[in-house]
Design goal:
alpha/beta; Urease, subunit C, domain 1; homodimer; eight-stranded mixed β-sheet; TIM Barrel; 449 residues; four-stranded parallel β-sheet; 2 domains
Amino acid sequence: MELLLKNVDLVITGSAVLEHQNVAISDGVVTSIARHGDTAAVKPDRTVDGRGKAALAGLKNAHTHAAMTLLRGYGDDMRLHPWLQERIWPAEAQLTPEDIYWGTRLAALEMIRSGTTFAADMYFQAPEVYRAFEDAGLRAAVGFALFDFGDPERREALQHEVDEQLAADAVHTADGPNATGNGAVRARPRVFPTIAPHSIYTCSGELLQWAAARAVEHDLVLHTHMSETEQEVQDCLDAHGVRPFQWLHELGVLEAAGDRMITAHAIWLDQEELDLVAKHGVTVAHNPASNMKLASGCFPWAEFDRREVSVMLAPDGVASNNNLDMFDEMKLAALLQKHHFGDPTRLPAEEILAIATGARSKLYRPYGVGGALTVGGPADVILVDLDHPQLVPVHNLRSNLVYAANGSVVDTVICDGTVLMEDRTVPGAEEVLREARRCAAALVDRASR
Amino acid sequence: MELLLKNVDLVITGSAVLEHQNVAISDGVVTSIARHGDTAAVKPDRTVDGRGKAALAGLKNAHTHAAMTLLRGYGDDMRLHPWLQERIWPAEAQLTPEDIYWGTRLAALEMIRSGTTFAADMYFQAPEVYRAFEDAGLRAAVGFALFDFGDPERREALQHEVDEQLAADAVHTADGPNATGNGAVRARPRVFPTIAPHSIYTCSGELLQWAAARAVEHDLVLHTHMSETEQEVQDCLDAHGVRPFQWLHELGVLEAAGDRMITAHAIWLDQEELDLVAKHGVTVAHNPASNMKLASGCFPWAEFDRREVSVMLAPDGVASNNNLDMFDEMKLAALLQKHHFGDPTRLPAEEILAIATGARSKLYRPYGVGGALTVGGPADVILVDLDHPQLVPVHNLRSNLVYAANGSVVDTVICDGTVLMEDRTVPGAEEVLREARRCAAALVDRASR
């Protein structure tokens, strides 16, 4: 499959913004970015008109709970514990596999419509999440959220379930969601598993150690929440006598799997913990909207930046955001740093845009997830509409994307070389909206009984 | 002119959300909000299909510098003084009347596309701003920004200019921008003047006193910036021995015109100043994006709220935002209060939505600007698309509008009973984009010479 993005007005590639380019794509890889005419030899199967548009890498959502779209607006403006205990947990206890599938499809639709081409999910009913992302055509890292609350029986049951999933290897068989349909399997599965212990306060040390070992054994990313609230740090000190990242260090998790680990939130770290993160190559995922909405605290971006820590950006779940628009997250991230530290020069537009495209992290590269738009990289590309009034005029395209845009500027989305949206139209969107509405209504009806 | 919004799925009116309503409009006034069938007798000149949509009051932008759209992205991530001195002021020195007109038209286009039906502007070349808002069909309060920097000659020249504008009374004559076209003048001008001394640090006490007197004499709103930065407070203490609102009090401005005054930013107030604001009925305009981007500080919403102060919301100018989307401002305002004060219950969705519609201020009511959508109120109404994925499902419509939406959910905009946008299409948008681009390019070319 050859695809040509023709006559694109502006192309953001690495630190450059090139004018009037053709972007050629072949079998899911960007094969050239060249001036008009230079790609005259390309005979594409499909051409997308790039006039009046700018191209850049798709945005990478590093931490989400996709199916929580069904709980959008179900509980807001509440403190964390009443919110979880009175609203979220009772509803989650009622989730069916069908809810998970359609909730994830709604999330995928929203992500496509706002220019996201990759999501790292952590939730329940992983096979349904797989199926939903595969059907939507998005790239995704799917983690089954593990909680044992220190209960050995529960832990063993979970371990058994994860091992069965890994053994079934749904991802790598011709029957699995990455089947090509003709008896073969994709070389680079578009949807792939992670090991996802929920957090240090819901998982025993044994479960965390086991999860790290399984991640290493199966060459997978280890995805967890860390240091989201001050309370979590205090509870860790009370329980283990050390702070959260020190606890991971004592457990040997950082040593075993730090460089394949991504920790969502990563707010409340002291200097020793920051150094541990840097030393062990841990990736951190910033969730500005969620952190502000739940009043969790402020991500110490400059501390990570000066240690050259791998950083990604994320919207978290819709229940604490309440959308999945990575453009919103970019603006919030930049504004939050400036406000919190009283310095308008913090986290400039160029940097947060690089972070949002995945260009400040190599964690997912072995799994086919790219960073900036480059020749030889994965064909995960978005086109934004330069005639959107909020993008006029263009003195600085990156600034416009970060500070002026929202997801509605995205016109076309290409993931793994496939066009998922053109002219803001996503095929099948109506069914997704209808089924998600039906599931959401039935879910809260069950939860409120 | 009779207009019927037919079969609207959901209507937000005051604190209620009504299902399946018809909204009837006659000569710029909402004449009924009723169940299907109840308006069978209405014979509208035009009908708008409300199925799959929700109706609410248009959003009210309480403080902006509209023509600064031409400087979108021209200077970001800079400290206030270098930003003003190196980027903004050199460019503003080059602004032509044509720039002001097309920059304001671009702002109006952006506001219409994101559901704003009223803007209070403060900038230069007021006649061009008038003409632009009138041509766009938006409701607007236009202030000519006054600076004398303590120079009596400059002050006299400004006073003369303002008096000439008021005497010419461009607003109230059949030749002016509020002419109906057949020799008459609108009873309630859609575009009307304010008196707009820029700030206490750019205006002498004499100019502030004169401005307050002129506002009273001509029954106009007095629009200024106040207490945006800590430095401004310190400078006021150094110059006058008192804090900014105390200085207005000493000048007699609060006593003369406090209840017709709106102060943008209003961040750094002590308890005595907060009491002064409440006592004199001053309205305050919160600008969350601008305040965060310039690291100015955090608006003390709860302090104003418990004193029942009149509060409005605003995006400020595009140069410090960088858009005019009031949906962005709602989310930012709510998140900023929660983050800054460490309390997720602060500034809930219902409250910030009321503020954004103007329902927490009566300042502009005498000038025809409404608050919530109500029968008998001005027909400034927006319809949002409930099929936008970010608004699905609807457990709580207000929460969805504040936390999940952006301006792109707006489908239809009605201002003063006239449809300015339907199905996201604004007539004449292409010309506005083309002319604004041309002016912006020439402006920065002149400024960089």
